[in-house]
Amino acid sequence: MEGDPEDGRFEMSTLDPALFSDDAIPPDTRTLNESIVAATANMANWWEVGAQTVRDARARGEGVFPAPVKSDRASWIEIDGPAGRIKLRAVAPANSRGVYLHIHGGGHVLGAADQQDKLLEFIADAASLTALSVEYRLAPENPYPAGPDDCEAAALWVSDNLRDFGGEALAIGGESAGAHLSALTILRLRDKHGRTPFKAANLVFGAFDLGLTPSARAFGAERLVLRTLDIEKFSEAFLPGMGSEEKRAPHLSPLYADLRGLCPALFTVGTRDALLDDSLFMHARWVAAGNRGELDIYPGACHGFIAFPCAQTLASLKRQAEFLNAALG
Predict the structure, then answer these.
(1) Which of 24, 34, 187, 204 is the most buried (most CB within 10 A)?
(2) What domain range includes position 283?
(3) What is the pLDDT at residue 245?
(4) Domain count, the chain
């Protein structure tokens, strides 16, 4: 934003249409997308074979995503939660100045806290934060509010015990459903507990309108990680029996919440992501509410792209680390 605040004129920077053109897609991203579509052409749907079957397969490294690599630096912490103990996957840097509270993705149905250790290592080392990833309860066995309740409990515990992790720096972030849960957690701590402890939010290709944004509705059947049907099925599992408008209640879809008084946030998304509009819209509302917000767009990148080896993944991870370091000071 540029301008002179004394005369009330500001010139807002605008999105470059070139980012969304087919010509802007890097060759390695184009090749990656083609390989993903080919690899998933005959993949079974989780709602047909069972969520646990797909979870187990992912843990074994089967499916479209690269096999998870466990870190010899990682350990588990257990804390009290609303329905029993909650596990936090911990990866610490050489010198920690606080915590990066991480919430994994997977549509609120799949994924696990120990399936992105290398990402946790990167964040820990690049931002000098102890990365703690929440093993929250998953749908459909545990629909709303189980997952958000666990993330809220984890955030309160981390906030209360922050000094045990080397300092007062506290950030939150996650990917896909993890970005959605991160936003809900920020709002829950403010609205239910009067707390705004987070200094930065790293929200990566998140789902912020569970009633589906236009890009989610229009994406169609191309199996580039996330189709319209997948989004609908994940939403049904997380919020069973609800219609689209019910799912847009502010406590469920943060796009519709009061966003005033929140921390700086980075929104990352690719132009070939069904959830493109979620990040575009949420970033605009975040800034309009008076918060600092940044938008990082990758031409041609699909949903979940930072899980795959490509140049855009390296660029995105670097940008995320730069954002965290700048926001935390």
Answers:
(1) 204
(2) 63-328
(3) 97
(4) 1
Annotated active-site residue in 117, 273, 277, 278: 273
The question of whether 180 is a catalytic residue gets the answer: no
> Tokens 């897609």 identify what position?
25
**193 part of the active site:** no
DSSP 251: T
Which residue among the candidates 102, 283, 303, 316 is catalytic per the annotation? 303
Buried b (16+ CB within 10 A) or exposed e, 179-214: bbbbbbbbbbbbeeeeeebbbbbbbbbbbbbbbbbe
Asked, for residue 15, whether it belongs to a domain, the answer is no
Confidence (pTM): 0.96
Q: Angle, nearest 10°, between helix axes 311-328 and 117-127? A: 40
What is the per-residue pLDDT for 63?
86
**Ramachandran bin of 220, using left for φ above 0, alpha for ψ from -120 to 50, beta for the remaining angles:** left
The pLDDT tens digits of the residues spanning 283-319 come to: 999 999 999 999 999 999 999 999 999 999 999 999 9
Angle at 84 between CA 98 and CA 103, to 5 degrees: 40
- Cβ contacts of 294 within 8 Å, gap of 6 or more: 264, 265, 266, 267, 283, 323
Within-domain flag for 278: yes
Report the C-alpha gap between 197 and 172 in whole angstroms.
10
Q: What is the CATH number of the domain that holds 257?
A: 3.40.50.1820
Q: Let me know if 176 is a catalytic residue.
A: yes
Residue 236 domain flag: yes
- Spatial separation of the C-alpha atoms in residues 80 and 287, rounded to whole Å: 35
CA triplet 255, 308, 95: central angle to 5 degrees? Answer: 80
Which of the following is catalytic: 96, 176, 215, 253?
A: 176
